[in-house]
Amino acid sequence: MKDSVIILAGGGPAPGINTVIGSITKTFISKGFRVLGLHGGYSGLFSEKASFEELDFKIADRYFNRGGSYLQMSRFKPTDKDFENNFNLSLFRDNNIRLLVTIGGDDTASTANRVAKFLEGHSYPIRNIHVPKTIDNDLPLPDNAPTFGFNSAKDEGARIARTIYEDARTSGNWMLVAAMGRSAGHLALGIGASCHYPMIIIPEMFDRTGITVEKIIALSISSIIKRKILGIDYGAVMISEGVFHELDSKELEARGVRFSYDEHGHPELGKVSKAVLFNDILEKELKDMGIKVKTRPVEIGYDVRCNDPVAYDLTYCSQLGMGVFELYNRGETGCMVYVDASGKVFPLYLKDLQDVTGKIPPRKVDINGGLARNFYDNLVQYLGPEDYEAARKYLPEPEKYDFRKILCW
Asked: Is there a smaller number of Cβ atoms within 10 Å at the N or the C end of the chain?
C-alpha cells in the first residue's frame, strides 16, 4: 500500500481551506502518495467509525478555488480520556498513514499540539503538521504574517461595510456594525480602517483601562457628537465582537444577555447579535440625552467565512499546501507551516508557541503599532479638549466623552 497523508479541518470556515486541501492533494499525489480527507474535524480521530474519503486530482481541481470546506468541519475538542481510550490508531495503521495535516485556528492548533505530544510519547511513526487558518488573524506568525482567510474575509467585510457606510450617508443615519473576531480586533480594525469608519472599537484599545458597556457607548457618542460639530449628520461605528470576552458577565446578564458555550469554553457569540445589543443600548442613551440620531444595527459575521478566496489567499494557501510537503520531506513534525514574504518555508514548532497550559495564545492587535495608531490619531473622529465648548450644545459634561480620557491614553 502507498504511504498516505490524511487531512482534517477544525474550528470554523475560512476562505482558502479548499485551496490548502487542493494544493496538498495535488502535491502529494504527484509525489506518489495517497491522500485522504477526514470529515468531522478531530472527532474522526477519536471514533471507531471515522468518516473519510480518498481525495484525487479531480476533486482537488474542482474545489481548490471555492469558498467553504470540502471536508466537513467540527469544533470537537478531545478530552484526556479520549486520548487514553479512543484514539483511532487503526485508522492510521489500516491506511498506512504517515502524516496527519491539521487545518485550523488557535484551538485546532492547541489540539494539534496535544496530538503531536501523544504521537511522540507513544513512539507512533506518524508525523503532524498544522496549517494556520483563521479569519481572526490571531495566530502568532512571525513578522505580522496573516493567517490564511483573513484577507479574503476582510475584503468581503469591507465590501459590505462600504455599502453600509453609503447607506448611512444617503439616509442620514448612524450604523452600528459588529464584526467577527473572538479574541482580537484584527478583522474589525482591518474592515473599519479600509472604509474610514469614524469610530472603531476593539478590545486591544482598552490597554490601560477595563472594558465596560458604558465606555463602549461613550466612545460611540464621542464620535457622533464630533461629527455633529463638523456638520456631518451620518456615520458608522465598527465594534469587534472580541470586546464581549472582556466584559463582565454580571454586567451583560444585568442587560439580559445570556451565552451558551462551545466545546472549548468560549461563549458562542454567533448566537447573539452584538450589533443589536449595542444599538439598543446606544439608542436608549441618545434618547435619554435628547440627542436626535437614528441608529441601525448590522452584523458582519457568517457572511465572510465561506466566500471564495481572493487572489492573495489563493496564492498564499497554495504556498502553504506545497509547504506542508516541503516540511514533511525535511522530516519535520509537531509544527505549523510558515511561508515568509519571499516564499521560503519554515517550521514553527508548536511546543515553542504554547503557553504554560499547553495552548497556543492568540496574537493581539499591536495597539501602539503603525496601523492602529495612524488611524486612531488621524482618521477616527472623536471629542478632545478642543471640542468641549462646541460639544456643550449636546452634552452637559463633554469631558466624560473625551476619547483619550475614556481610554486613559
From this structure: N
What domains can be seen in the chain, in order of their start residue?
A: 4-148+309-353 (3.40.50.450), 153-305+379-407 (3.40.50.460)
The set of cell numbers assigned to 277 is: 445589543
pLDDT in tens, 329-373: 999 998 999 999 999 999 999 889 888 887 888 899 999 988 899
Residue 30's contacts (CB-CB under 8 Å, 6 or more residues apart) are: none
Band of residue 4 on the pLDDT scale cut at 50, 70, 90: very high
Active-site position among 106, 136, 138, 155: 136
**Helix boundaries (H) for 289-368:** 311-330, 350-353
> Closest by alpha carbon to 243, among 179, 299, 295?
179
Q: What residues are paired with 148 via a beta bridge?
A: 133
- Report the pLDDT averaged over residues 83-103: 93
136 is an active site residue: yes
Beta bridge partners of 346: 338
Would you state the cell numbers that stand for residue 296, as one nine-digit string?
441601525
At 336, list the grid cell: 505549523
C-alpha cell at 241: 465582537
Single out the residue of 73, 57, 62, 65 nearest to residue 24, CA to CA.
57
Q: How far apart are CA 78 and CA 188, in angstroms?
A: 31
CB 327 within 8 A of CB 337: yes
CA distance 347 to 345: 7
Element (H, E) at 164: helix 150-171
* 40 vs 78: CA distance, rounded Å: 12
Read off the pTM: 0.90
Q: What is the pLDDT of residues 111-161, one digit of tens each?
A: 888 888 888 888 888 999 999 999 999 988 999 999 999 999 999 999 999
Lateral strand order in the sheet of 235-240 = 199-201, 235-240, 174-179, 295-300
Beta strands 34-38 and 52-55: pairing type? antiparallel
